Amino acid sequence: MKMLAGKKALVTGSTSGIGLAMAGALADEGADIYLNGFGEAASIESIQKDLKAKSVSVDYFAADMSKPDEIMAMMADIESRHGGIDILINNAGIQHVSPIDTFDPKLWDAILAINLSSAFHTIRAALPGMKARGFGRIVNIASVHGLVASANKSAYIAAKHGLVGLTKTVALETASTPVTCNAICPGWVLTPLVQRQVDARMANEGLSLEEAKHVLLIEKQPSGEFVQPEQLASLAVYLCSPQASQVRGAAWNMDGGWAAQ
Ligand code: NAD
Fold first, then answer.
1. 1 located within any domain
2. Residues 132, 199 within the same domain
3. How far is the CA of 98 from the centre of ligand 1 (A)?
4. Cβ–ligand 1 contact at 148 (below 6 Å)
5. Residue 22 domain-assigned?
6. Domain span at residue 210?
7. Best mutation site among 43, 48, 69, 91 for ligand 1, i.e. most ligand atoms within 8 A of its Cβ?
8. Hey, CA dihedral for 50, 52, 55, 60, is it positive or negative?
9. How far apart are the first and last CA of the chain?
10. Structural domains counted in the chain
11. What share of the chain is helix, strand, coil (3-state, %, to 5)?
């Protein structure tokens, strides 16, 4: 019997990068998967096919995580079609890099909505069912930028610090229940979100791809290596395991030493 057999997991932003790896790792442990995120229909179809090959049931929800109405409709839809969720991975996120004095207010609002407020809405909707069924795991994908700051990422850092704060509050409110809430704080991971920052370094500083990746890493991440999505997925699976029932309110960094400095 697989560890998460019979459990139902919603992973927001699971059509790419870290969320996609987490959906795969949870399916490997037997969890049914509810996907969410943007992408071409053919690509989403192919992700669903790959996950179904792991002998779990899979469904896809197209909710835009910047829109509370769409989030609430998705949560109600999951409740009525699948009877709710046992595992909630709040992973959807976007980034924008700019000094604050020229930061587009619309992008500030979008980053706060997707990277922070969406987790409030999904947790609020999912928690009563988790408590009633006697099991719940909430894992918020924050960032090392939920623990320390960098210049030119005001909205992202405010949102991720907020997400770590939300994690601690939910962990306290659920401390005497079978529901846990924790955050994972990755350092640099080479996903499309970070590839855009590598591309900007190449364009702005006239660097090759390898040079741009190298300067990005050495500025912040002492290991000089990217964190792999599969490594983060293993941590998420651990946090969803029965053995992690006393890990509560943690903001667990996996960052090649970034936050140790
Ligand atoms: P990614 O761009 O590969 O994936 C982001 C996912 O979020 C995609 O599935 C995308 O479709 C989805 N998404 C974006 N906006 C959405 C919206 N409005 N509604 C629904 N889905 C939406 O990026 P990633 O690097 O895998 O990022 C995943 C999470 O990890 C993010 O929260 C990010 O902040 C966090 N993170 C990433 C890194 C890194 O170095 N890549 C580091 C720390 C934290």
1. no
2. no
3. 18
4. no
5. yes
6. 190-226
7. 91
8. positive
9. 42
10. 2
11. 50, 15, 35
Give the pair of three-digit tokens for residue 156.
């992202």
135 and 202 part of one domain: no
Q: pLDDT 10s digit of each residue in the chain, 261 long? A: 999 999 999 999 999 999 999 999 999 999 999 999 999 999 999 999 999 999 999 999 999 999 999 999 999 999 999 999 999 999 999 999 999 999 999 999 999 999 999 999 999 999 999 999 999 999 999 999 999 999 999 999 999 999 999 999 999 999 999 999 999 999 999 999 999 999 999 999 999 999 999 999 999 999 999 999 999 999 999 999 999 999 999 999 999 999 999
Q: Residue 114 C-alpha to ligand 1 middle, in angstroms?
A: 9
Task: Reduce the DSSP state of residue 254 to 3 states and report it.
Answer: strand
Q: Are residues 181 and 197 in the same domain?
A: no
Centre of ligand 1 to C-alpha 7, Å, is 24
Residue 130 and residue 174 in one domain:
yes
Same domain, yes or no: 221 and 207: yes
User: Who's near 5: CB < 8 A, 6+ residues apart?
Assistant: 29, 30, 31
The number of beta carbons lying within 10 Å of the beta carbon of residue 53 is 10
- The reply to whether 88 falls in a domain is yes
Q: Is the CB of 256 under 6 A from ligand 1?
A: no
199 and 76, same structural domain?
A: no
Q: What is the CATH number of the domain that holds 249?
A: 3.40.50.720
Residues 175 and 206 in one domain: no
Number of other residues whose CB lies within 10 A of the CB of residue 205 = 10
> Is the minimum distance from the CB of 141 to ligand 1 under 6 angstroms?
yes
Which atom of ligand 1 sits closest to the CA of residue 114? 18
Tokens encoding 10: 């919603």
Residue 125 lies in a domain: yes
**pTM of the full structure:** 0.98
Give yes or no: 34 in active site: no
The answer on 71 and 25 residing in a single domain is: yes
